[in-house]
Write a structure and sequence with these properties.
Structural class: alpha/beta
Strand content: 15-25%
Distance between the termini: 29 Å
Radius of gyration: 17 Å
Order of helices and strands: EHEHEEEEEHEHEHEH
Largest sheet: 6 strands, mixed
Length: 254
Amino acid sequence: MGSRDLDTDCIKDEVTVLVTGFGVRSPNAWSHFTGANLPNIKIINATPIPVHYRVVRDVVPWLDFSPTSAHAAAVDMSPSLHNPAVPFERLLLPNFPADGKPRFDFVLHIGMAAPRKYYTMETCAHRDGYVAKDEAKESFEHDTFWRDEYKAPEVLRPGFDVDDVWRRWKSELMGVDVRPSNDAGRYLCDFIYYTSLVEYWRRDPSGKSPVMFLHVPGGIGDLDIETGRKVALGLIGAMVGSAARRKEEGEIGQ
């Protein structure tokens, strides 16, 4: 897997990328991201997140953003970043303030779509329609928090040029079936994606959200994990490379 499209120096000397996943694969699957050879890119792995709507909506904003308000400044998410000994469901978090600053330059959420035999880059996330029950036997079918409290739109999209990201990603992964998708499934994958995107939208409705979601097939063998690792790193490289290109052309701000 090459890196010919990467030029992150025009953004900053080093960019950081948060990678999250649900507690489906073994912890060793996520450890493959440690020491990844991508120039100027530092990857931070989060502890696998429980497949619970409420945990996702409570925790993900604290992962993505550092609160600046005094009442929230004491909350420290660092113990649950790449530390399985501190599961997220043990953290008691207050409501997230709207004045937080991004902790990371980019965010990539990863989830499993077991029936699929291919990888998908999800290009949008949905606010409503979460009928399927999570592992706590709870659905969010009737939840209206984002609609009523935030006045958030029904669909949110990442702030990338997704066509450019797609071209870069595909060109780095010859022989692997990778596809763009506009349907993340109306389950926890779609939900965590919207949870991230809506927090960026609250701060900048113009859509400059450096967040992406990757769906991987259901295999958990060594070859499956290694292929998934290459696909994910390829997508990270495509995200960063595309953002660097847009910054060079003056399409995005500092």
